[in-house]
Amino acid sequence: MTALETIPEHVTRINEAKTPTGPGRPGASTAHITPSTEHLTTDDIERLGAELEVIRDRVMSSLGDDDARYIRRVIRSQRGFEAAGRILLLGALFPPAFLAGTASLAVAKILENMEIGHNVLHGQWDWMRDPEINSTTWEWDHVSTAKSWQQTHNYLHHTYTNVHGKDRDIGYNVLRVDPEQEWQPIYLFQTFTNAGLAMIFEWGIAAFDLELDQIQRGEATWRDKLPELKAMGRKAGKQALKDFVVFPALSGPSFVPALAGSVLANVIRNIWSHAVIFCGHFPVEVETFDEERLENESQAEWYVRQMLGSANIDGSVLLHIMTGNLSHQIEHHLFPDMPSRRYRTIAPEIRDICRRYGLPYHSGPMWKQYGGVLAKIARLSFPGGHKRTAKQRLRALPFGRRRAESLDAAPTAA
Question: Superkingdom, according to UniProt (predicted)?
């Protein structure tokens, strides 16, 4: 395989094919002007977009053998960890085998969901034309079906990132993660709701992917949802049968500890996925937007929205692999169909673009990012939060601390 001259047509560029306002529409509104971008002219934003296009074209035209070897190596490693975990749990009556087997199976599930499943389903590896490692054929180790997840994640979330009323990932319909979400008494308990969601995260995402709230709004009926419910039921049944019946039963007298190990591996995977995703989307510095923002939004403005609406996690190469390179959430949101291993190589360029154009580049160690998210969820369980959030977002901007302090004299929003 040689470096590619062009990207095959069947690779979907979400930011071209899915963004309904499309690139380069005339008559762009002023909705893109926020405290983060008010110093930029329309020409500045278009130049920024052009620089990003150059980076994307350079990387996508250079994909080749090294990239293909990487994803195949990760898949082999993941399958090795899974096989080792299953075998070790056959002897789960022995504590060392239980611990090693559970850890190995948890690593396998994390790798499959994060660095493999999530990225394959984004079409990042479709250019290889491998019938197995392809967004149209891959079915991941997750309760959600690939098709339903691609609809809610690839399309809705990546098209309408952080737009109120369009991006359903803002709080996943159960959490208040932005002060612009109307407060309801149920949010008083969201610290506990969030903890429970973390432990069953794949099941929560599967229920979320069904978009059952459409029935409440009168946009769909139960009959309309029946095919999706049946598909998820089949997928969930297979997952539960595999993890909680078949493999534990193979261990014979070790059934109970083997079952416990399998349950624990799934919980570990769920908590890790929850932490990574929340760190990338919900730190207090990350911005949200009104629907007006979408009006005649140009491709370059779409790029800026992705940069302002995402946050990275600082860490080692191993951390990046275990997060599916979603530790480079900014780069992922800019180029969702770019192979994840390339995000680390372009991250310094993206950071430099943000520096030169005076835009924030939100990044920090995982403990700080996740701690901040949990504190934000706790604060927003109560009404208000507008003024504090506005100040923290301003502080995150280049030279924004003085402007944040100026808000001290402003009245608190309800």
Answer: Bacteria
Report the Cα 319 to chain-centroid distance in Å: 15
Give the lowest-confidence range in 17-31, 236-250, 287-301: 17-31
State the pLDDT confidence band at 8, using cuts at 50, 70 and 90: very low
pTM beyond 0.85: the answer is yes
For residue 45, being part of any structural domain is answered with: yes
Domain containing 268 equals 33-61+142-403
On the question of pLDDT at 10 being above 60, the answer is: no
CA 89 to chain centre: 31
Helix (H), strand (E) at residue 343: helix 343-356
CB atoms inside a 10 Å sphere around CB 84: 17
Asked, for residue 75, whether it belongs to a domain, the answer is: no
Beta bridge partners of 363: 312
Please check whether residue 113 lies inside any domain of the structure.
no
How far is it, in rounded angstroms, from Cα 386 to Cα 179?
5
User: Which of 5, 45, 96, 6 lies closest to 354 in space, CA to CA?
Assistant: 45
What residues contact 75, with CB distance under 8 A and at least 6 apart? 116, 133
- The secondary structure of 103-122 as a DSSP string is HHHHHHHHHIIIIIIIHHHT
Contacting residues for 286 by C-beta, under 8 A, at least 6 apart: 162, 308, 309, 310, 311, 362
- Residue 96 and residue 129 in contact, taking contact as beta carbons nearer than 8 Å: no
Query: Please, which residues bridge with residue 364 across strands?
Result: 313
How big is the CA angle at 190 (ends 230 and 153), to the nearest 5 degrees? 40
Is the CB of residue 306 less than 8 Å from the CB of residue 362?
Answer: no
Total structural domains within the chain: 1
Question: What does the pLDDT average to over 197-208?
Answer: 94
* pLDDT of 390 higher than 50: yes
Query: Per the domain annotation, does 150 fall within a domain?
Result: yes
